[in-house]
Amino acid sequence: MNNLELKNRDLDVLWHPCTQMKDHETLPLTPIKKAYGVYLEDFEGNKFIDAVSSWWVNLFGHTNPYINEKIKEQLDTLEHVILAGFTHEPVVKLSERLVKLTPEGLEKCFYSDNGSSAVEVALKMSYHAHKNDGKVAKDIFVSLTNSYHGETIGALSVGDVELYKQTYEPLLLKTIQTAVPSDMSVEAARAAASEFEELCKQRASEISAIILEPLVQGAGYMHMYHPEFLVLVRAICSKYDVHLIADEVMVGFGRTGELFACEKANITPDFIVLSKGLTAGYLPLSVVLTTNEIYAKFYCDYGEHKAFLHSHSYTGNALACAAANATLDIFENDNVVEKNRVTAKYMSDKLQKFKELQNVASIRQTGMICVVELKGYKPEERIGLKVYTHGLKNGVLLRPLGHVVYFMPPYIITNKEIDKMMDTAYEAIKGL
Q: Is 340 left (phi over 0), alpha (psi -120 to 50) or beta?
């Protein structure tokens, strides 16, 4: 097997996600033979630093020996069993640990297999909880401008990506967007919260929940805002009987400098949605945690017909739970969050030099997420693609969001590898 052979076989049969396939007439696919640590390696021995954690999922490096071992152990015991009417030790253990680790008051776990599906669970659970309370008019969801929550129909409905909304508008649910804070200042946080409260004053009787990405809007060009917004929104939701759904699919598990982004504001949402880093990038798994109060609204005799109606075939998959438990072991045993703060400081120091480039509009950082925003380019120039191509030629996987170049590497990255990653991006931007 070689690179060319696999590329040709791929293009005969595969349709890739988030890709205009015609681009591959001139932009070659990158076949990967194996991966280890922060590196991806093709069939010709070329190595690439995975600066985007393979779409934000990888925490502790590829083919991590400890996670590998735990999955192999589980494989010889139980691979999967239906979670309706049955249970198994890995899912119970994982649930116990998540209840202890997430913000206080989140006591029940409901599993799915990816972030979008988990968002759907939270939306349905919120609406259904109100319905079981007799509040059937609360069928509208609020989300933030510039938000993204996934690409299944419900998740897409609460997002604010213009292209998606224009394309699929006839299929989408009723939603309202309220302003995201315009920047990382406390003043912007308070102004946006005030707008949300005005909306609640007028329409709280119709609103089931607000869903938001705490602190960082991932696909929304890594836009960042102050934790004060979360504090204020939590208070507003409690005041007006509106649920707060925290979508921590991207920011959860140490990305922001705390284990969970909500900890930065010391709040407990009504629902927290987790995926991606939950299994450190190994296997599909997601979970929605909620309160005993909401759980109780569905707890009744069968004949009352108030049970929550949702299921997936691979809910609570034992192998995925084994990967998740191994991931939590590493967090517990290796002081990961504390080490991340040191790494984030090094990344911050390296980030400063981008300010000297005339085509850089701004830099920003939250924990292990660093951003360089460019200026002076039109979308049709496809600046991000040029940075991506330069990165691959120089051994780094960078995947900009349009004019926004970001760094979100696995936590095990070394200072030398950070130098390589950020110096490569610097040269790419300088050469535009």
A: alpha
Alpha helices in 251-309 (DSSP H): 292-296
- Per-residue pLDDT of 294-347, as tens digits, reads 999 999 999 999 999 999 999 999 999 999 999 999 999 999 999 999 999 999
Beta strands at 106-112 and 140-144: parallel, antiparallel or unpaired: unpaired
Residue 139's pLDDT is 97
pLDDT at position 428 is 98
Q: Give the single-character DSSP code of 44.
A: T
55: Cα within 13 Å, side-chain hemisphere: 11
How far is residue 306's CA from residue 165's CA, in Å, rounded to a whole number? 32
As a residue count, the chain comes to 432
Contact 306, 132 (CB under 8 A): yes
C-alpha 189: how far from chain center = 21
Q: Classify 40 as helix, strand or coil.
A: strand
Each residue's pLDDT tens digit, 353-378: 999 999 999 999 999 999 999 999 99
Query: In whole angstroms, what is the distance from residue 372 CA to residue 363 CA?
Result: 5
Phi, psi of 243 (to 5 degrees): -75, 150
Q: What is the mean pLDDT of the chain?
A: 97
Q: Which helix (H) or strand (E) holds 122?
A: helix 115-132
Chain position carrying tokens 């900890």:
263
How many angstroms separate the CA atoms of 366 and 255, rounded?
A: 8
Task: Give the span between the Cα atoms of 217 and 148, in whole angstroms.
Answer: 7
Q: DSSP character for 401?
A: B
Question: Is there a contact between 146 and 114 (Cβ–Cβ < 8 Å)?
Answer: no
Residue 419's φ and ψ, nearest 5 degrees, are: -55, -50
In the numeric block, which tokens belong to residue 142?
Answer: 């609020």
Q: Are 165 and 177 in contact (CB under 8 A)?
A: no
Whether the pTM exceeds 0.85: the reply is: yes
Chain centroid offset of residue 147 CA: 12
Cβ count within 10 A of residue 406: 23
Closest CA to 253 of 269, 230, 276: 276
